């Protein structure tokens, strides 16, 4: 098989197929309850924290040192903040007579809008994240580890991230085909990155900024939107915490094993 075709297939399998698998998991439940949404968001947030803290930021530091890592992470946070400025939530809830403002069973109209908004933000963050992962896969052809092993590792990363996109969008009432399309599109930059890295090789400074940028965006989304929503939608706080740690621990296991 030609090396370029191999890189394309591996990056497509990791990015597009990985997020699609996660998306399918996220839409299995036709009418997800708030508790289900809470647990799915907690697990996906944990996985995103694990990827950012134990994969992306260390890779960024190894490639460029402290300054590029810090600058890239801050730019990633700033980018998500900018997205939220244009995707702001101005919905005013109209509750039914007798409905408690702390009701953890009914998903209101405004909550659906907020979940859809969150899904879009996560989608953008995941698309940003898939580009440096693709760069690493393409550069893997020049490294001892190889692009196939990197593709397997990143596939396991992309599955919970597809879940992170799908869970809030499904709860918001978005059509299934749109959710799956968003998941697939979020993984496509991995193919673009892999092709680019195949031709230009390993550029440590570029990878450092790319990895830390994606890490900053993912950390901000996980900590400022996903986890707060998870705790808001369910009063099973200990379970949410355990599920979050499980998502992060799963990524750590993958990192250590590879």
Task: Describe the overall structure.
With 258 residues, this protein is mainly alpha-helical. It has one domain. Helices cover 81% and strands 0% of the residues. The protein has eight helices and no strands. The radius of gyration is 18 Å and the shape is globular. The chain starts with a helix and ends with a helix.
Task: Note the main attributes of this structure.
258 residues, mainly alpha, 8 helices
Number of domains: 1
Largest sheet: none
Order of helices and strands: HHHHHHHH
- The percentage helix is over 70%
C-alpha-based Rg, rounded: 18 Å
User: Tell me, what's the shape?
Assistant: globular
What structural class do helix, strand and pairing data support? mainly alpha
- Which blocks of ≥5 consecutive residues have pLDDT under 50? none
How much of the polypeptide forms β-strand, as a percent range?
Answer: under 5%
Overall pLDDT score: 82
Give the tally of β-strands.
0
Helix segment tally: 8
> What is the first-to-last residue Cα distance?
24 Å
Concise synopsis of the structure shown:
The protein has 258 residues and is an all-alpha fold. It has helices at 3-26, 34-64, 66-86, 109-139, 147-171, 176-200, 204-233, 237-257. The chain has one domain (3-86, 107-257).
Task: List strands and helices in order, with pairings.
Layout lengths: L2 H24 L7 H31 L1 H21 L22 H31 L7 H25 L4 H25 L3 H30 L3 H21 L1
């Amino acid at each position: 098989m030609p090396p370029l075709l191999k890189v394309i297939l591996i990056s497509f399998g990791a990015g597009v197929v990985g997020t699609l698998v996660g998306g399918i998991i996220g839409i299995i439940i036709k009418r997800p309850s708030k508790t289900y949404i809470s647990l799915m968001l907690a697990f996906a947030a944990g996985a995103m924290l694990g990827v950012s803290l134990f994969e992306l930021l260390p890779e960024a530091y190894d490639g460029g040192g402290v300054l590029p890592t810090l600058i890239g992470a801050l730019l990633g946070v700033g980018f998500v903040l900018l997205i939220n400025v244009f995707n702001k939530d101005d919905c005013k809830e109209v509750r039914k007579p007798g409905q408690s403002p702390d009701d953890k069973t009914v998903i209101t109209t405004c909550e659906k809008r907020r979940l859809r908004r969150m899904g879009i933000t996560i989608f953008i963050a995941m698309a940003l994240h898939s580009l440096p992962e693709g760069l690493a896969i393409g550069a893997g052809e020049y490294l001892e580890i190889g692009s196939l092993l990197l593709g397997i590792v990143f596939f396991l990363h992309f599955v919970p991230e597809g879940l992170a996109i799908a869970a809030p969008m499904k709860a918001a009432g978005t059509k299934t085909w749109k959710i799956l399309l968003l998941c697939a599109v979020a993984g496509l930059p991995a193919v673009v990155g892999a092709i680019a890295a195949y031709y230009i090789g390993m550029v440590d400074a570029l990878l450092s900024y790319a990895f830390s940028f994606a890490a900053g965006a993912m950390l901000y989304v996980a900590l400022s939107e996903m986890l707060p929503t998870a705790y808001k939608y369910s009063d099973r706080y200990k379970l949410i915490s355990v599920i979050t740690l499980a998502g992060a621990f799963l990524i750590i296991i993958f990192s250590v094993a590879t």
